[in-house]
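Handout, page 2. Input:
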Amino acid sequence: MTPATTSAAPVLRAGDAPAIRPAARRRLGLGTLVARLVLAAAALSALVPVLWTFLNSFKNRVDIVSATPKFLFTPTLENYAYVLGREAVAQGLVNSLVVVGSAVLIGALLGLPAAYALARYPVRRADDIQFFVLSMRFLPPVAVAIPLMVIWLQLELYDTRIALIVTYTLLTLSTVIWLAIPAFKAVPREVEEAGRVDGYGPYAIFFKVALPIAARSLVGAIAFGFVLVWNEFLIALMLTTSDAKTLPIVASELSQLGRDVPWGILNASVILLSLPPLLMIGVLSGFLNAAFKRKRDAA
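Output:
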């Protein structure tokens, strides 16, 4: 009898990576290429309008309305000078800074403890509470603005900064709570238990343990809330007429009907309107990075 021959299967030693077939490698490379192309297309679709707006803010009207897009032109600062020279723009900027800054500060002071309580202390219908908070962002602005307009008119607070601060606080509060709950849930419970062993009470654990650990995500939540209320247009349009107009309302008034639309002025106002949120995010990021660097150096 002839003994049956058996082929020994290759044995992988420790540290050896499994071999990838050429066909699988080509499919993997093709998938990576497609994913990168999709990401590049998404990035370009977001950046190109911003860059084009930035370029148009330095153009004359003749260069903007030219049939052939002009990339080489003589830049001018007349659009920015016109926008910054208007008294209404300065008043709108002050109103926006006061209203949005106050609303975000109050929303953070009230929203962060509420989010921590919902994340760490289970209560009956906690999921319903979270959904109710989130549903406040589902409502269209008109559904929120009309009842509030009636309330502020009856209280004789229509077209005041106080009315806008309270209204924007409601919007900011829902955003901060919604985004801060997952951040607090990600804090390890073991770290909080160690704080309790060291004698920390609930408030000390919140301020000295939970807040520092979740700080990065919380800064993102606060910045996101700032951007949402800073760009709010319809509610501010319905709750103000002259005294408390914010910067988006003033920027919209720079446009004119007909063919004489001042495109350069509009583009300059859009760029100026976008600067405060970017500056705020940069300042918060720098402050957070400096705080973590000092903490690492102290350790």
